[in-house]
Write a structure and sequence with these properties.
mainly alpha, globular
Length: about 290
């Protein structure tokens, strides 16, 4: 039990630290650039980065407060944390595969909780609604330079999350699948040579090589699609709430969207890992049973 709890804290800490790495110069597509508070050398410190750091620290303190001193008979807070972790474990393990799961689970659970809390941080009063701006012709005040902005409403934050996720995917895939499996999965002929005539089998090899090239292109654009999907939904929800003055139905809807987007991001990462690493588990279990 103590090992599980320390594993939870370490994984959240790892994901929170890595996920707050910003991409210098990246701009929020379709939205205003983040406000720069100061600079550390060439690295700008923006309002969304500061929000990400604050949320990371708050997440670590919350887990530590809930768990307290781990025990075999869990208290209420420890039971809540272990219940959430157990539910995510049951969700991710069949997708990732048992072989790669011990290495993949820390980054998956860290990214899920980090993205979830970051998404929900945009629903707090004052976030995105306090700052500097101007009055329009009708006398309404418009915020153009918010003091606080959620990390996921800025493309800097989401592209950093996507890069961290894809680096983890590459490391886990090469460690638990290996270059041979990866190359065969990308370019290998998936047809059974014993069941197909040579006149069909060998031309199929050329087709699978072409498919592998397309798959390489797909892998290269994964960081972009992961980041834009998350950023677009969060930024769009933030804009909708501000335009409707935080009407309760939309507020409740954005609460659900925050959960869905955290789940979509981590599920896609687990699928990417499982496509390469989740091979042979069923066969190994059957062999062990016999």
């Amino acid at each position: 039990m103590r090992l599980l709890t320390s594993h939870i804290k370490a994984s959240i800490a790892l994901g929170a630290v890595l996920a707050t790495v910003a991409v210098p110069g990246a701009q929020a597509a379709g939205g205003a650039a983040p406000s720069v508070f100061t600079k550390i050398g060439p690295l700008p410190i923006t309002n969304s980065m500061v929000t990400g750091w604050v949320v990371s620290i708050a997440l670590l303190l919350l887990v530590r407060w809930l768990v307290g001193r781990p025990s075999l008979v869990p208290g209420r807070g420890q039971a809540v944390v272990e219940g959430a972790v157990g539910a995510l474990r049951d969700l991710f393990e069949p997708i990732v595969g048992k072989k790669a799961f011990p290495a993949a689970f820390p980054i998956l659970i860290a990214l899920f909780f980090y993205i979830l809390i970051q998404n929900w941080s945009g629903l707090l009063p004052g976030v995105g609604t306090i700052g500097w701006g101007h009055h329009d012709a009708e006398g309404h005040f418009h915020i153009t330079d918010p003091l606080i902005r959620p990390a996921n409403s800025d493309w800097n934050g989401t592209i950093a999350l996507a890069i961290v996720a894809m680096v983890a995917w590459a490391w886990i895939s090469f460690k638990y699948a290996g270059p041979k499996v990866i190359l065969h999965d990308l370019f290998g002929n998936k047809a059974d040579k014993k069941e197909i005539a040579p006149a069909i089998y060998y031309p199929l090899s050329v087709v699978f090589v072409l498919i592998g090239v397309i798959e390489i292109v797909s892998i290269c654009i994964r960081p972009f699609t992961l980041s834009v999907r998350l950023f677009g939904n969060v930024f769009g929800g933030e804009s909708l709430l501000h335009a409707t003055h935080f009407v309760f139905p939309f507020y409740f809807l954005e609460t659900l969207v925050g959960v869905v987007q955290a789940m979509v991001f981590t599920l896609l990462l687990s699928i990417y890992i499982g496509l390469l690493c989740n091979h042979g588990d069923d066969h190994a279990e059957e062999h062990a049973h016999h």
